């Protein structure tokens, strides 16, 4: 009986970190020296390596951008569907516009409600729901509970952001 091939392979990074990649990409990616880089804005590590640009200068390239075929300086971004920035398996990556990538962000650490798109409105003593559309805020209403405000946010997010809506 043969053992099925695992759904991922691992690549050792610096700082004790490990990146997951799809098996068919392992050989090509593992031929490079990958490092773990901490990103303050996402509070997570990314796998990066050094690459030489056509002008002879060196820069860093993120593993997920290489997998997605995104070139240095290109405005499109790579989105990690499950928010694990070291999970670079094909099924966890997709190309996104900067706006789409923002839609899939997790709840910020300074959020007091615990829900994305929900904040406390001091003057009305109610929970306020807002959503971003093309970089502009859209007011969704005031609610008695944070759960009700989040339900309004989720409905709007699914309608406006589609597959990139982060509602959990």
List the helices and strands and how they pair.
Layout: E1 9-12, E2 18-21, H1 26-30, E3 35-39, E4 44-52, E5 58-62, H2 63-68, E6 77-80, E7 87-88, E8 93-96, H3 98-103, E9 118-121, E10 126-133, E11 136-143, H4 146-161
Parallel strand pairs: 2-7
Antiparallel strand pairs: 1-2, 3-4, 4-5, 6-8, 9-10, 10-11
Features:
single chain, 168 residues, alpha+beta, GCC-box Binding Domain, 11 strands
Structure in words:
This protein is an alpha+beta fold and 168 residues long. The protein has 2 domains: 9-96, no CATH class; 107-164, AP2/ERF domain (GCC-box Binding Domain, 2-Layer Sandwich), CATH 3.30.730. The chain is 20% helix and 34% strand. The protein contains 4 helices and 11 strands. A 3-stranded mixed β-sheet has the order 1-2-7. It has a 3-stranded antiparallel β-sheet with strand order 3-4-5. The protein is elongated.
């Amino acid at each position: 009986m043969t053992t099925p091939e695992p759904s991922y392979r691992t690549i050792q990074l610096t700082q004790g970190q490990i990146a997951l990649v799809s098996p068919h990409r392992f050989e090509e990616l593992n031929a490079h020296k990958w490092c773990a880089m901490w990103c303050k804005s996402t509070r997570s590590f990314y796998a990066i390596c050094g690459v030489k640009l056509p002008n002879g200068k060196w820069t860093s390239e993120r593993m997920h951008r290489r997998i997605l075929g995104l070139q240095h300086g290109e405005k499109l971004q790579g989105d990690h569907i499950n928010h694990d920035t070291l999970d670079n398996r094909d099924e966890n990556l997709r190309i996104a516009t900067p706006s789409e990538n923002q839609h899939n962000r997790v709840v910020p650490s300074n959020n007091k409600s615990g829900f994305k798109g929900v904040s406390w409105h001091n003057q009305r003593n109610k929970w306020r729901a807002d959503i971003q559309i093309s970089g502009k805020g859209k007011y969704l209403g005031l609610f008695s509970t944070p759960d009700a405000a989040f339900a309004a946010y989720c409905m709007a997010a699914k309608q406006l952001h589609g597959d990139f809506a982060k509602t959990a």
